[in-house]
Amino acid sequence: MRIDVLSLFPDMFTPLKQSILGKAIDKGALDFHVTDFRDYTENKHNNVDDYPFGGGAGMLLMAQPIFDAMAAVDAQAGDKGHVVLLDPAGRKFDHHVAEELAQKEHLTFIAGHYEGYDERIRELVDDEISLGDYVLTGGELGAMVIIDATARFLPDVLGNQVSAEEDSFQDNLLEFPQYTRPADFRGRKVPEVLMSGNHAKIAEWRLKESLRRTWLRRPDLLNQRELSQQERDLLDDIKHEAEFE
């Protein structure tokens, strides 16, 4: 996958070149580019923003630098990709959106600043995404979150692809508790079933604990999942156990 970002602050994306994503970039699983769209301004002061027509607070990003920076991406990559605008009015980002974006061959993010965008910039856009019901000072942090979450679904990015498939929110269940050595840490013991070697019992325990954690912390997710008979029975057990705690 190729990922392009249009930003006024390219250095903010340096952390993405570290750790797991950095390794993915090094081995060619991810092709990552950041374009400073200030480089494409046509005015002598290199301004990228201006006052809104009709008055109002704040400044708006001008259309010209974004259009020309996007044309440069298109020329270099051969296409502009699936263009994502980071905007509080966009659809809310979640696990399923990350999976959807991971199917694209080329993503381009527009990370804005200031009060907002000249509306004509939206002509370039295929998708508008928000991290949630709050406002950040710029789109860079939002773009980094989306890139990180999306890249985990790409082949050869994680050392173990099963990790992405079993993570929290996959199939609308939170992840089950996990443990590593020692088996007894200062009196806090690992559940015996996990050391039993009985894979069927371990799988059932993990499913039950995923259901328990989801029911306690994010019950709304269960409404989005079609529960099997086994899951309904386990959930009944969990609710019954909770009555006696």
TrEMBL record:
<protein>
    <recommendedName>
        <fullName>tRNA (guanine-N(1)-)-methyltransferase</fullName>
        <ecNumber>2.1.1.228</ecNumber>
    </recommendedName>
</protein>
<comment type="similarity">
    <text>Belongs to the RNA methyltransferase TrmD family.</text>
</comment>
<dbReference type="InterPro" id="IPR029028">
    <property type="entry name" value="Alpha/beta_knot_MTases"/>
</dbReference>
<feature type="domain" description="tRNA methyltransferase TRMD/TRM10-type">
    <location>
        <begin position="1"/>
        <end position="224"/>
    </location>
</feature>
<dbReference type="InterPro" id="IPR029026">
    <property type="entry name" value="tRNA_m1G_MTases_N"/>
</dbReference>
<comment type="subunit">
    <text>Homodimer.</text>
</comment>
<dbReference type="GO" id="GO:0032259">
    <property type="term" value="P:methylation"/>
</dbReference>
<dbReference type="InterPro" id="IPR023148">
    <property type="entry name" value="tRNA_m1G_MeTrfase_C_sf"/>
</dbReference>
<keyword id="KW-0963">Cytoplasm</keyword>
<feature type="binding site">
    <location>
        <position position="112"/>
    </location>
    <ligand>
        <name>S-adenosyl-L-methionine</name>
    </ligand>
</feature>
<dbReference type="InterPro" id="IPR016009">
    <property type="entry name" value="tRNA_MeTrfase_TRMD/TRM10"/>
</dbReference>
<keyword id="KW-0949">S-adenosyl-L-methionine</keyword>
<dbReference type="Pfam" id="PF01746">
    <property type="entry name" value="tRNA_m1G_MT"/>
</dbReference>
<keyword id="KW-0808">Transferase</keyword>
<keyword id="KW-0819">tRNA processing</keyword>
<keyword id="KW-0489">Methyltransferase</keyword>
<feature type="binding site">
    <location>
        <begin position="131"/>
        <end position="136"/>
    </location>
    <ligand>
        <name>S-adenosyl-L-methionine</name>
    </ligand>
</feature>
<comment type="function">
    <text>Specifically methylates guanosine-37 in various tRNAs.</text>
</comment>
<dbReference type="GO" id="GO:0052906">
    <property type="term" value="F:tRNA (guanine(37)-N1)-methyltransferase activity"/>
</dbReference>
<dbReference type="InterPro" id="IPR002649">
    <property type="entry name" value="tRNA_m1G_MeTrfase_TrmD"/>
</dbReference>
